[in-house]
Amino acid sequence: MLLVSKPCLGTKEREALSKVIDSGWITMGERVREFELAFARIHHADDSVAVASCTAALHLILHALEIGPGDEVLVPSMTFVATANCALYAGATPVFVDIESLDVPLMSIEDAEAKCTARTKAVILMHYAGYLADRDAWQAFARRRGLLLIEDAAHAPGQAEVGTYGVAAAFSFYGNKNMTTAEGGAIIASDSGLLERIRQMRGHGMTSGTHQRLTSRTPNYDVTMLGFNYRMDELRAAIGLVQLERLAEWNRTRSHLAGIYRALIDEYCPSVHVAFSTPRTSTHHIMPVLLPDADVRSAVIGHLRDCGIQTTIHYPPVHQLSYYRNRYPGVRLPRTEEFARRELTLPLHPQMTLRSVEDVVEALASAVGFDRKLSVAE
User: Fold this and answer.
1) Is the pLDDT assigned to residue 374 strictly greater than 70?
2) Catalytic pick from 6, 121, 177, 373?
């Protein structure tokens, strides 16, 4: 089965894990700190905080910014459910914003303006599929409305511009992301004081960690704020350090494969639309396409699966999931809903070849009624 995503793991990751095990120190220590600094460097930041997941990262950012009960947070519905969940974790209310268009499934500033109230305190901007939102436009919007701008950068590690939009950015290293630590995440913040509060909050609000107490020769610590158990361990940090070495290369490969996909689909599947037709900066985390009609999606999925090709959907709209539909009935986002009905995610990862891309497009063409053989790889 050609998978939608596949982590690149090998000998170096195995060796890195062995070194951690041999060291006898597997919780937060020198490798976590080394990973934080290395991750910050590739984003031209001074520092970062490594955490257990992107979900933890978003929750910590909102909590550190003191967003809570009575506050509203603008969020996309075209995202993974965690983006909205984190607003609820903080005690705030998520307010769902429609996408810009079927071609640009990023949050709409126009709809965000319409959803603002006196209680709106922040906006979580998600770089869907790794395509970066318009930084200048969103910064101007945030200034105009007096809002805190937060990036959900789960799809966009490795782009230097990410982490420069607003107060903080949250990243994911889950197993299907552009780089992985199996589970894990990181935070970049523009204010060093905010970042240090987040660093303390990830470890129960304690004033020092176990490794710090070992090296400082004192067992004493205090708890000066409400914190959480959102730490990253040495094993994940060790994998992350190896993955970081090849992130730029993998992102270039993704970009190359996405370009081939776009050209072949345009030629052989003219009824299928590839989102983001106007070039913009991207890490090409996933390969989303729009089928000509929602009614054919099940058949297309089945046909590709019979050809040994996995597909998936990014995403079922959060506002239509049972929990959120029951909690916030009556939410309508017509562009998001239409995009979600027709969207299909094709395989895209650095271990794919030109031949495998060609196979996917050939199967897709057959499924939507353009049964032509491709010969690009010959």
Assistant:
1) no
2) 177
